[in-house]
Write a structure and sequence with these properties.
- This protein is an alpha+beta fold.
- The chain has seven helices and nine strands, in the order H-E-E-H-E-H-E-E-H-E-H-E-E-H-E-H.
- Strands 2-1-3-4-5 form a five-stranded mixed β-sheet, with helices on both faces.
- A hairpin with a 5-residue loop joins strand 4 and strand 5.
């Protein structure tokens, strides 16, 4: 474990349905030497709950730095130690980037509960036919400061930029992008994070909102969404994003 303090910081950003629910936090370490924090995000209907591991991978992707070599997680009592769905998410991410992922879980005191040098060895029975995703260029923050009073113009600019952060399961694919504006005058722009079973998709709107949450900047005032499929009409929010 590199930094128990940073893991606890990540855990503190957990966005829960009930304050008493157990928290978790994760850190993703990229080949570029960068770190990305993730926290457990819950929904009121439970269907849209997102694990802290999934969140830290999402944040890495939105910063154009998807090649993750290691994920560390800290959990409170009451959380399943090794979640098979988390292993699946990690394996899918590893397959798309071509980078093996180490994965470790710690308790609140820093004691190791689980450790593997390669998540794909834990799920040897599971595999997907994948296309390697190449972002290219240098890592880049998906947060900017609003510089104009023309909110619609600025949101349009960055919602389109969000499509370039889309993490698909195949190439080519329809790209979705979103942007949120917060009370602090920050714009967070993101693409969706697709999954092979479609059940674990993180939609672009969710990704932009989660980016704000992980920056401890939760007061969202505006949201925009765009799709490369909708060239003649507006892209509507889907049912789960409306929730």
């Amino acid at each position: 474990m590199k930094d128990l303090g940073e893991l606890k910081k990540a855990m503190s950003f957990s966005f829960l349905k009930k304050e008493a629910n157990p928290k978790s936090g994760s850190i993703a370490y990229s080949k570029n030497g960068n770190t990305y924090l993730g926290a457990k995000i819950e929904s009121f209907n439970h269907i849209l709950d997102i694990t802290s591991e999934h969140v830290c991978l999402l944040i890495a992707v939105q910063n154009k730095d998807p090649e993750i070599e290691k994920v560390e997680t800290i959990i409170e009592e009451g959380i399943t130690i090794v979640d098979p769905l988390v292993l699946k998410v990690l394996c899918d991410h590893s397959a798309r980037t071509g980078v093996n992922i180490e994965y470790s879980i710690f308790d609140i005191n820093g004691n190791i509960l689980f450790d593997t040098k390669n998540v794909k060895e834990v799920l040897q029975f599971y595999s997907q036919k994948v296309s390697l995703i190449q972002f290219g260029g240098q890592p880049q923050s998906n947060c900017v400061t609003l510089e104009s009073k023309n909110i619609k113009k600025e949101m349009k600019k960055y919602v389109v930029a969000g499509t370039e952060n889309y993490f698909p399961t195949s190439i080519p694919a329809t790209k979705f992008g979103s942007a949120v504006l917060t009370k602090s005058n920050k714009i967070y722009y993101s693409g969706g994070y697709a999954s092979y079973d479609h059940r674990l998709n993180i939609h672009a709107e969710m990704a932009a909102a989660i980016s704000a949450i992980m920056a401890d900047d939760k007061e969202i005032t505006h949201l925009a969404v765009v799709s490369t499929k909708n060239t003649e009409d507006c892209c509507e929010l889907c049912g789960c994003c409306r929730q």
